[in-house]
Amino acid sequence: MSTTLAGMLFIASLIAAVALVWKPFGDHMYRVYSTTRHNRAERVIYRLLGVRADAEQSWGVYARGLLAFSVVSILVVYGIQRLQDKLPLSVGMKPVTDHIAWNTAISFVTNTNWQAYSGESTMGHLTQMAALAVQNFVSAAVGMAVAIALVRGFARRKAGTIGNFWVDLVRGTIRILLPIAFVGALVLVAGGLIQNFAGPHEVSTLTGGTQAITGGPVASQEVIKELGTNGGGFYNVNSAHPFENAATWTNWFEIFLILVIPFSLTRTFGRLVGQVRQGYAILAVMGVLALASVLLTNVFELSGNATVPQAVGAAMEGKEVRFGVSNSATFAAATTLTSTGAVNSFHDSYTPFGGMMTLVNMMLGEVAPGGTGSGLYGMLILAVITVFVAGLMVGRTPEYLGKRIGAREIKLASLYFLVTPALVLVGTAFAMGSAEQRASMFNSGPHGLSEVLYAFTSASNNNGSAFAGLTVNTPWYDVALGLCMVFGRFLPIILVLALAGSLAAQAPVPAGAGTLPTHRPQFVGMVVGVTIILVALTFLPALALGPIAEGLS
Amino acid sequence: MSTPVLEKRRVGGGLLDPEQMIRSLPDALRKLNPATLWRNPVMLIVEAGAVFTTVLAVFDPSFFAWAIVVWLWLTVIFANLAEAVAEGRGKAQAATLRAAKRDTTARRLKSRAATEWDVVGAPELKQGDLVIVEAGEVIPGDGDVIEGIASVDESAITGESAPVIRESGGDRSAVTGGTKVLSDRIIVKITQKPGESFIDRMIALVEGANRQKTPNEIALNILLAALTIIFLVATVTMQPLAIYSKLVNPGVPDSLALNADGVTGVVLVSLLVCLIPTTIGALLSAIGIAGMDRLVQRNVLAMSGRAVEAAGDVSTLLLDKTGTITLGNRQAAEFVPVDGVSEAELAEAAQLSSLADETPEGRSIVVFAKQHYGLREREIHGAEWVPFTAQTRMSGVNFEGREVRKGAATAVMKWVRDAGGHPTDEVGHLVDGISASGGTPLVVAEKGRVLGVIHLKDVVKAGMRERFDEMRRMGIRTVMITGDNPLTAKAIADEAGVDDFLAEATPEDKLALIKREQEGGRLVAMTGDGTNDAPALAQSDVGVAMNTGTSAAKEAGNMVDLDSNPTKLIEIVEIGKQLLITRGALTTFSIANDIAKYFAIIPAMFAAVYPGLDALNVMRLSSPQSAILAAVIFNALVIVALIPLALRGVRYRPSSASKLLSRNLYVYGLGGIVAPFIGIKIIDLLIQFLPGMS
């Protein structure tokens, strides 16, 4: 079997697997978020937190709860890192330096999981488990909660409330993430991943040197790293490490975990708004963009259009031999399309256009299918903007799912799509404008520019993957990228919740022949077009001076 | 569109002559004042860019820089021109109206009973003043006729030269200041406040003096502002990247586009102006003004732009049966004889009884008898006509010993019985049958026996069914409002093809129906003329009052139809839709244009440092300078080219949302992508020979 064919089968089987669980899993999430019953564990948590679980919240209260929870989370993660030498299971690790601790705390709370540190030499086991892995769960649940709140805005009629943040957070964690993570971790252990509390272990390498390899609770962290589209690896080399990703089939399974929630949430969306076909439409938009991206990344990598790859016969630099070019490219596309940021190969070593695809995937705004929850709400914002322009063209005040898109709605949606590109571009401009920051670049020329652009794109879009090649654990980068992560996460969330509140308050307009249908291929095509054009228009100058200049040289 | 009247009114309203452009030029220049321009953020940025590049060109002159400066200024001027031309058309109309607003004097009565008056200037009249107006005089202010009847020439407002009747009481009591009484004498109670007459409001409206942005326009402006900010960020943040790129390629010589300080100011501004949505930004307010103007040209005055926009959103249309769906009057459709009477005999009696009946129903009986039974009208002498009264509820004739009557079934049957006749059950069945089918039965009798029944029917206007089908395709539900009983109403509703009807409607029912529809999230449009329509007009989202109606109705509605043609509601809906479509289409076009501009400007800026980027120069433009200038020129010219479209509105054909979208996407989306590639290439071919272009 040729490698290309194997790669295609790999992709096809992934699509089949996601398609298979889409309906039952999406329906399960629908029930989780719409039932009125609390289970015993949840009741205990609500009592401990002092939450009135049956009280609905306005968008403002919902947002305040979310922000308060996130601030506390950041402080806790920061505190644990700084005090880890005084805590058990430190395996001899020193306290994390202040700027890295701040960057890491923000990184994990914002579901970015950008790693300015090297896991096996910086973080103790307790830090990994109590600080980082906990955030892997709850930051994913926060994203899902926001998405569900927005969908409720569409579904509700003249309502002042959009749900209860604490309930959504707890349910997402306990009923969706934990059970899958438990089963998934066992599967990964069976696949060869490790799960222990061992400390550094000296081994002799083939070349005769020695290397310290740290053991740890890897499988349990690996599974939620993918499932919650987090991406922060236990080891510095992330999913390229054999203890994190042992073989082709664990590679397949990890990609499946990455994709399953973001895609299945479209089903949940369809159920919640009472029109399953609307869910199909959003799924189709995500699917078209994702498939196109995966295939293009594969094409660029397999054609190996650069000097070195042509010399050695394949673009193998920075890729693991056990995965090969295609399965690495597919992983790279999946991880950048979903705001996961886990890597099993080094994007910095990709062909210029292959590397550009990973950049473009993130620049899409993490919507195809995007992060857990954030993908759905980002895509719905794009649908709102599409509906606005398209709706005018059919001669009516634009409406989506029966809700009018008026001045307030378009203001919130416009601000949403302003935030991340502005952060990316302004951050990149500052870094490139300063000789001191440019010194962090490993390469010069357009490739060096791509490295910086990638870092800011990844942080602002809460992806967290690194192009590598850029020394980012300097105070300046830690602070700048930390700010990008905070603003790139919470400003959009506040805008989305405000939009949810404004939509929920409306009485829906009944659909008629004059209403723009938003479930047909026509609309799917428009959203795809709007997404691509918005990204192209915003980032083309920067891309032209980075990967495009490199690729066309 | 089978009714010729409608067809005639649909066209026109958008043609633009070059002379108009030239005439509006001074206005366009005046609008360069930033204090005026700030309302249009997109164009304000272009103007700021034009000022900036002018300064740069002064200090570092080159032909290229000055060419860019000139075309940037032209871009702003073209945008202003679009608005000025749109406003200019309103101004012409306002001038006509002003001519009608001559300063008149009024004869003000001291009280209703008084016979003496004092003469005051029209502007001094207050609400509640009584004035007396006689033939040949101009009515000094808006008001209601409280005494008398007169024919009035309202051509000053409606443009219609045929005089109309205005009389006290009823729904035709309103008169408008500035119109002229042609005959008789009326007493008018002034209802306007000083300086707020109908004509004043009309002038303000057509001039767009206090034009407010409409909700969708505001929303679109926000989107455009957001896009502008994005492109501003994208352009400004490109500068450090450009400086870096130049730095790492030290061998590349400086050019007009790129030097060690990065992209030159002139080129950076050019890129920004090309990217921000200038096309729609330039035309947006012209589109709004022209939309109002299209209504005015159809003799509809919208009190707010909001109402025009709401018209496009309407999903329920309430239409009065009489005058809108049916011709005003019922007409004879059938003669049904009873008890062995021949059809000819019945026809003859029916015709005889109606010869002197000047009501439309009576005329229609005579006409029907002539058309279907060959009975010609005849002059008869010595006949005694019995007129219809509310008490007898029948009319007829006594002639040569015959007594013939026609009228309401109960009245005529009673008359027959009183004369000793015994009408059979057959008559009753017939009458019920006709009523059930929606018709009006008139029983014809000759002393002591019933001859038969005349079937009077409402006649649905030609072309209405097609119109309603069209509405349905547009997603608009039509509801017929009638005072008829449900049976009659249903029959007419079926025949006309409306979706629903409200029978035996009282003003309260109407109001309740509107509220019910609105509760379900639908927008409702209706027309009305009577005072009892006022609450419903006020409640509806689009309330079109007939100019012939009462002042209360005109006050309550948000539009006034000067032609008093209830069918016009349908056109108003179409104009509302067209307004939104035009905005959406030009926005799409504007954004789609950017793709080609990138392909022109990016290689022009950076191909010197990265020769590979020349592959993006797919148009094979001759030089960096000519590529950038061509993009800027195209960007400016496309505004001028689209002014006529903005004023006329995008062609609108009633059809489903999906079809409309497909069509507009092809024309303005795909067209918007392709057009600039061609346009920029052509401009490049023309300007490549200018100095400094290579």
- Runs of chain A in which pLDDT lies below 50 for 5 or more consecutive residues are none
Q: Number of DSSP strands of chain B?
A: 24
Order of helices and strands of chain A: HHHHHHHEEHHHHHHHEEHHHHH
Mean pLDDT of chain A: 92
| Helicity level of chain A | 55-70%
Radius of gyration of chain B: 34 Å
Distance, first to last CA of chain A: 34 Å
Number of helices of chain A: 19
End-to-end separation of chain B: 57 Å
Give the overall shape of chain A. Answer: globular
Portion of residues in beta strands of chain B equals: 15-25%
How many E-type strands of chain A?
4
Q: Please outline the major beta sheet of chain B.
A: 7 strands, mixed
Strand order, largest beta sheet of chain B: 12-24-23-22-13-20-21
Number of DSSP helical runs of chain B: 23
What radius of gyration of chain A results from the CA coordinates?
Answer: 22 Å
User: How much strand content do the residues of chain A show?
Assistant: under 5%
Protein name (chain B): Potassium-transporting ATPase ATP-binding subunit
Binding site for ATP (chain B): 357, 361, 388-395, 406
Domain P-type ATPase A (chain B): 105-207
Pfam families (chain B): E1-E2_ATPase, Hydrolase
